[in-house]
Specification:
The protein is an alpha/beta fold. The chain is built from 10 helices and 14 strands. The structure holds 1-{4-[(3-aminopropyl)amino]butyl}guanidine.
Length: 284
């Protein structure tokens, strides 16, 4: 929590990263969670929820590019996309860069996160909330996916860690809802924590996704301010072809989409499915 001018992340009981807050821009209990936004000399503007760093201006591109371009370019022609969470708008911004996209529905529980990120982290959404293809719903993601009668080609869960409002987004009931509104050939991805520090999250998610999808797996990326090593992203689909799309095809799609990135490359995309042995052990 915010103390004097220091912000200590409280995600892990005996260790955490600390930030100097040059200036606190905003701090409130939204009714859903504790939200703070502050400036730091190294990371620019930083947003944290319930004691956990969510995003910083300097490294947000790593996470948002990997969460979006890996499923989108594996699919190749996603027209309808669903985002769960993602209030800062970074995921929405990247999804809207894909020319195949016709509509993006984003279901976020906390209006205040959206409003304050538009105000203090404007480059995250970069105008995406005004895009006519975007449809923003303020609602509970679990209810939404279970009640939804539409189907989506790609679903991206950009949640907090499994505590507070994010907890339900790691339950079997949520994953059943995802199955309900995912096209047969579509793909679901979700942030799944830092695998070295949160290995049990990998195991639990794998156990819960496996009965529902032909393929439950993970891919990875290293986000500097999600400390503790690589982050794993959950990957669930009935379409076994998606993970095996060739490098040449991914390159051709990436070029045709004409998207410029700072972390993502087609080779990084292919390589991200290679998992460290301890992660493979965790999902055996
Ligand atoms: N949501 C994921 C933050 C995860 C942090 N967890 C951790 N370090 N274990 C980020 C929101 C960005 N749009």
């Amino acid at each position: 929590m915010a103390n004097d001018n220091q912000y200590l992340e409280t995600l892990y009981p005996s260790w955490g990263q600390q930030f100097v807050m040059d200036k606190v821009l905003f701090e409130v209990n939204t009714g859903h969670q504790h939200l703070v936004i502050f400036d730091n000399a190294q990371w620019g503007t930083v947003m944290a929820l319930d004691g956990v760093i969510q995003t910083t201006e300097k490294d947000e591109f790593v996470y948002h590019e990997m969460m979006v371009h890996v499923p989108m370019l594996s699919h190749g022609e996603a027209k309808k996309v669903l985002i769960i969470g993602g209030g800062d708008g970074g995921i929405l911004r990247e999804v809207l860069k894909h020319p195949s996209v016709q509509t993006v529905t984003q279901v976020e529980i906390d209006q205040q996160v959206i409003d304050m990120c538009i105000k203090y982290l404007p480059n995250h959404s970069a105008g995406a909330y005004n895009n006519p293809k975007a449809n923003i719903v303020i609602a509970d993601g679990v209810d939404f996916v279970n009640e939804c009668t539409e189907k989506f080609d790609v679903i991206i869960s950009d949640s907090t860690d499994p505590m507070g409002p994010g907890e339900v987004l790691f339950t079997s009931r949520f994953y059943q809802g995802i199955k309900n509104c995912l096209e047969d050939d579509g793909v679901f991805v979700a942030q799944n924590g830092v695998s070295f520090m949160q290995t049990s999250e990998v195991t639990t998610t794998f156990k819960r996704l496996s009965p529902l999808f032909t393929e439950a797996s993970f891919y990875c990326g290293a986000v500097p301010t999600y400390v503790g090593g690589i982050m794993t992203f959950a990957w669930a689909t009935d379409n076994l072809a998606l993970k095996n799309v060739s490098l040449e095809t991914i390159e051709a799609r990436f070029e045709a989409a004409n998207i410029s990135t700072r972390f993502y490359t087609p080779a990084v995309h292919k390589g991200s499915f290679a998992l460290p042995h301890y992660v493979m052990e965790a999902i055996k």
